[in-house]
Amino acid sequence: MTRLRLAALTVLGLCFAAPAAMAEQVIKSAVVRVERDVPLPISRLDLPIEDDGFAGARQATRDNSTTGQFLGQKYEMLEVDTTTTDLTATLDRLMAEGVTSIVSIAAADDLLTMADHLAEQPMLLLNASAEEDRLRNDACRANVLHIAPSRAMLADGLAQYLIWKRWSTWLLIHGSHPDDITKAESLRRAAKKFGAEIVEERVFEDTGGARRTDSGHVKVQKQIPVFTQRAEEHDVVIAVDENQVFGLYLPYRTWDARPVAGDAGLVARSWHPAFEGWGATQLQRRFEKKEGRRMTDLDYQVWVALRAIGEAATRAGTADPVALRDWMLSDEFEIAAFKGQKLNFRPWNNQLRQGVIMADEKLVVTVSPQEEFLHQVTRLDTLGFDRPESTCTF
Amino acid sequence: MRLLPSLTALLIAGPIIAGQAQAYTVYVTNEKGNSLTIIDSETWEVTQTLDIGQRPRGITISPDGSELYVCASDDDTVQVFDTATMQLKHTLPSGPDPELFVLHPSGNPLYIANEDDNIVTVVDVKELRVLAEVPVGVEPEGMGVSPDGSVVVNTSETTNMAHFINTETFEIDTNVLVDQRPRFAEFTKDGKKLYVSAEIGGTVSVIDPAAGEITKKIGFEVAGIVPEALQPVGVRATSDGKKVFVALGPANRVAVIDGETDEVIEYLLVGQRVWQMAFTPDEKYIITTNGNSNDVSVIDVESLKVIKSIQVGEQPWGVVVSPS
Lengths: 394, 324
Prior knowledge:
A: alpha/beta; four-stranded parallel sheet; 10 helices; 12 strands; 34% helix; 17% strand; B: 324 residues; mainly beta; 1 helix; 28 strands
């Protein structure tokens, strides 16, 4: 092992002796956002941000370029909006323009379309937004690298903290959309994995209608206590509400005085604008200074995706997408992304290992994995589908 | 009266011993406490605690010991204290969010890493003005200066390089790629080696400054501690270059490296989240700041024993010792 590292060092040494003599390398990426119908949020504070994700891409490109100037590497990035219908044509156009890596902001099915369309192409594809577990299991694709944490990773991170807190009996309330049904499954799995008990489940039916009305709170104040009464004895309410139909109505309104976690209250996520751990403040500050707003989870995920490409280009000294992907999936790859330890990819499903932040609206409460949960390889693999559980085959 | 001679000997010896162990003043910044703790190295007791600027981190002292420089990160300034009175003399135009800096061996200028702007600011500490701003990699942090003062090395935490800045032209002559999140740069006194720690990479790179090449990477291993907790931060080398101390952050250990072979020879248990270190000028002791246990540890350099821990303010970060 030691010998291997030294060998790699020598190769790097050579790469760096040479940059002045090398022609400038151009690493051209596109961030592709596929239009989606999203319901209006319950809170007007959650109205969609126009450049959500794109701003993170711009920050990553600035960071990569700063590094690139010392190595004769140039980073270009295109912000591309498209639709499901135009998706493959858009990809063809980008390939023709010389784009060699794509960061996707797209729903699971659109991501699969992209993966299959690009399967035989020399193109890096990084998933920055889709959290579905199936993309890491039965529907996995060899040419997709997942930067977004999976639902299972988020659910496991939350479960670890709740178990640490000794809140081990859960009332699970999930929505009626298909997304909610599959997401609830991630929570059930996490409960079983870490020894929590789901004492009761309830379904909150989405009956449609306007999300926000002038005095909507009057009705909600009466509706939620009734909806949550006579539940089995529980420590915590887990809300599963992918489409923001009811989750935020639960805190302070449940029949029993219980904390809420999941899609309201304590939320598991990859990033939070108040997060200051492991130097994160530095990224928050330089992002806010340039973009004039706070950094979202999606901004962070796109930032990590492009930084991973930059890191691979720096270390491997190449702009070739196939060589970059090989490097990213090798043992040599590591990236620092403000999570307190180096991150790399799981070889069995190309998922980026990463810590998960649990936070309320204003502050970070904790970061999982919790140190009490041990693992034979790395504690990060206590989150999500570990090698023996994976059903992904490339 | 056979007792008398030995008693006399004791009485005489007492003051002599005290005279030999010279007393130095140890200054510790407390990042969360917004304070500065002053410790007497003879008694190892806290003699004074001062409220200073917000989020004090990097700290250094002028070669004559008259001026103390502190990065007050959240005040975006460097505070300068008169060590005789411990009064704030003035502040330096430091650029935003100063975290670490290094003073030229002559005592002027001061080279400051500004994390937010990807620059190193060069400040004349006598005329209180900015001499130059040097663009470096993303998130500049560690600062080291060669003993002859000709080169300042800055480490950039996201670019992952050691940038060699020529102190005459203020331009970067060489860049050396190191492991993830480089934190600290320390030259040996003969200027022949440069040690650069990489917190997330978990290594210390040994660099030949003349060639601008890594000659060795030092890894760390402690039984019972997960590898990701072995995070090298502060580095200090003795003047003879024979012992190099590396603070390992959340591993609560200081690694001692044989400066000739660059192999780890010892791990010393200190306080929690050990961060920065400073020698006493006679190099009999090295003092470590332990952020999570709110104390500093004192290591005997010769015997490699941790001889003392001293409670300081909240989250001690940086430490410097008076030159005499």
